[in-house]
Design brief:
This protein is mainly alpha-helical. The chain has ten helices and two strands, in the order ββαααααααααα. The protein has two domains: 71 residues, no CATH class; 125 residues, no CATH class. 57% of the residues lie in helices and 3% in strands. The chain has a two-stranded antiparallel ribbon with strand order 1-2.
Length: 230
């Protein structure tokens, strides 16, 4: 069984499989969010296509897997939005991590709040360094999230002040860990509709990435020739 797709990036089949959890060997076995993005981009079958910012793809995979079977199909409308959404701008990963951490911190269980507060402050420091603004000058959304968990915010501030931040380490380790922690924190939170919140998070992150990419949105994903050779 599949769902119709209107408007395409590279002529996908008329019917696409219903989204399901996890990685799949082929479309006959089902598909996750990023596997369908690969199809739309004309890439080989994979849940790690080159057409999408790796950290955004990481978020999409986790949101796909943590959304209930009843509501996962609602994510399908977002799939075309991630195709070609990639940039070398170092702020991209920091923006993704910050949005994830600030969204999850106010609702996450207490045992996750310290790590999420650290993630907020770490992403803020990375962005402050890249934007050339004072380290302590937090964005309103970050301040609001930290205010929702004052004990965690105080603990995190003391830790981040003592620890140094490596941009390479942030991109390689801290940012992906933040995405995973945030999605799980929302999925496990005592809220009435975690699926809706996860969908909203993915939507917001896509919009953040689009704003950074600007008019150069479809950036060097994979050339037509490279796709044919894969």
């Amino acid at each position: 069984m599949g769902v119709p797709v209107s408007g395409s990036v590279s002529s996908p089949p008329e019917l696409l499989p219903i989204l399901s959890r996890g990685k799949h060997r082929s479309m006959r076995k089902g598909a996750c969010f990023m596997e369908m993005a690969a199809v739309l981009a004309g890439e080989r079958w994979s849940d790690h296509p080159q057409c999408t910012q790796p950290l955004l793809a990481e978020l999409a995979r986790h949101v796909n897997d943590c959304t209930s079977d009843d509501n996962r199909h609602q994510l399908a409308v977002l799939i075309p939005s991630v195709v070609g959404l990639r940039s070398d701008d170092p702020r991209m990963d920091a923006r993704i991590a910050l949005r994830c951490a600030t969204s999850a911190l106010p609702m996450a269980a207490q045992e996750r709040q310290n790590a999420l507060a650290v993630a907020v402050l770490t992403a803020e420091r990375v962005l402050a360094d890249l934007d050339g603004r004072p380290v302590g000058d937090l964005e309103p959304g970050s301040q609001l999230a930290l205010d929702s968990a004052p004990l965690a915010a105080k603990w995190a501030d003391e830790l981040v002040r003592r620890a140094g931040i490596s941009l390479k380490g942030f991109h390689r380790h801290a940012a992906p860990s933040t995405v995973r922690l945030a999605v799980r924190g929302i999925a496990d939170a005592c809220v009435s509709d975690p699926d809706r919140i996860l969908r909203r998070l993915l939507t917001d992150v896509i919009e953040d990435c689009e704003a950074l990419c600007g008019n150069g949105r479809a950036v060097e994903a994979v050339s037509t020739t490279e796709r044919a050779e894969v």
